[in-house]
Amino acid sequence: MYLPRIINKKITSTLTQKSVLLLGPRQTGKSSLIREELNPDRVFNLLDQSTFLMLTRRPSTLRESLKETDRFVVIDEIQKLPSLMDEVHLMIEEMKVRFLLTGSSARKLRRSYTKLMGGRTRSIQIHPFVYPEIKAQFDLKKILSFGTLPNVFFSAEPNAELTDYVGDYLQQEILAEALTRGVEQYSRFLSHIASCAVQTVNIDGLSRDAQLSPSSTRRYLEILSDTMIAAQLECWKLGTKRKSASTTKLVFFDVGVVNTLLDIPQYSPVNPNAGMQLEQYIGQELLAYRDYSDKKELLNFWRSTDKFEVDFILNDTAIEVKHSDHISEKELKGLAAIDQEGDWAHKIVVSRDPYRRKIGSFEVLPVQDFLEDLWAGRFSRS
């Protein structure tokens, strides 16, 4: 089953003006989107061994094999052969070809892609399914258990799909990115870093737990960022009364992947991990909203040195995520603290409450109500 992707509008609009580098982890739906919604003249899939070998031996084959009428070309998994970027550059300049280049890592493309940054190509990131795409099939328990990767979302055996994904992709392909001498080192890092989902990052503590040097830990974190598996949010620092902590917060791209890395069973409201699962899901929706928006949305979190915290800050909206099904005033301490630090358009608690309501100046929104408001642009930059 295929569901239309809302990022397609941004991609097709951009392609009328310039080429696109579409980045995202494996199985987020790049190839399906190309097949179902775009209409390229040619597709070169570098996961196909014969295509890869042909272009490795003679990169100019890319140019030589096109017909005069071929004006929209897709190269799938371009990071497999970064040297092709020179051919792409030439064809954009001299043949006026528009490219959609897909990749699951920005790491190997950095040097080559820099040549294309001068207004010729725009980078766009794709995420797993987001709320507007699965609204008709929305099932919070299922999402918090298995996430929203397309292949997993429609699978009759989502646990098996996730196990394969973590084993085949995270542990092998990203290991190749790490250029590490030891599989055990990187595997230890993955299991420990997953426990940091929606937590602040303590390099020294993480290094001790994973038995790694701080420099190795930083390098592995950079790889997770380059492969878009996890993002580090910066701490909001514009408060006027309290000093903000100097740290970052880690949000993964999919809650199902986090569950699998940590060997967490299916979501249950009484499971001690339930709060993390809900916050991680809200975090991944916020990341996707930020990346899909045409505006420069600002996404942060807040933690003060005296331990007050707010889970997310989107522009001028402060957002706390609570797993409670009935929010009370005692759960508003973080929002009450940040309310003293500046002017806020919205101060929101996202929870499992059945109804939206207000406690003073604070809004309590059920999960689905929050997602409706988010994707309707209620918290967007004006």
Descriptive notes:
This protein is an alpha/beta fold and 382 residues long. It folds into 2 domains: 7-126, Rossmann fold, CATH 3.40.50; 132-375, no CATH class. It is built from 17 helices and 13 strands. It has helices at residues 7-15, 30-37, 49-57, 61-64, 84-94, 110-114, 131-134, 140-146, 150-153, 158-178, 183-194, 203-210, 214-226, 255-262, 274-292, 333-339, 367-375; strands at 19-23, 42-45, 72-76, 98-103, 121-125, 230-234, 248-252, 299-303, 309-314, 317-321, 346-351, 357-359, 362-366. A 6-stranded mixed β-sheet has the order 8-9-10-11-13-12, sandwiched between helices. Helix 5 links the parallel strand 3 (72-76) and strand 4.
What is the compact description of this entry?
With 382 residues, the chain is of the alpha/beta class.
Structural domains: how many: 2
Q: How much is the average pLDDT?
A: 91
**How large is the count of helical segments?**
17
Amount of helix: 40-55%
How would the global form be characterised? Answer: globular
Termini separation: 36 Å
In terms of topology, how is this protein built?
Blueprint: H1 7-15, E1 19-23, H2 30-37, E2 42-45, H3 49-57, H4 61-64, E3 72-76, H5 84-94, E4 98-103, H6 110-114, E5 121-125, H7 131-134, H8 140-146, H9 150-153, H10 158-178, H11 183-194, H12 203-210, H13 214-226, E6 230-234, E7 248-252, H14 255-262, H15 274-292, E8 299-303, E9 309-314, E10 317-321, H16 333-339, E11 346-351, E12 357-359, E13 362-366, H17 367-375
Parallel strand pairs: 1-4, 1-5, 2-3, 3-4, 10-11, 11-13
Antiparallel strand pairs: 6-7, 8-9, 9-10, 12-13
Helix pairs in contact: 8-14, 10-14, 11-12, 11-14, 12-13, 15-17
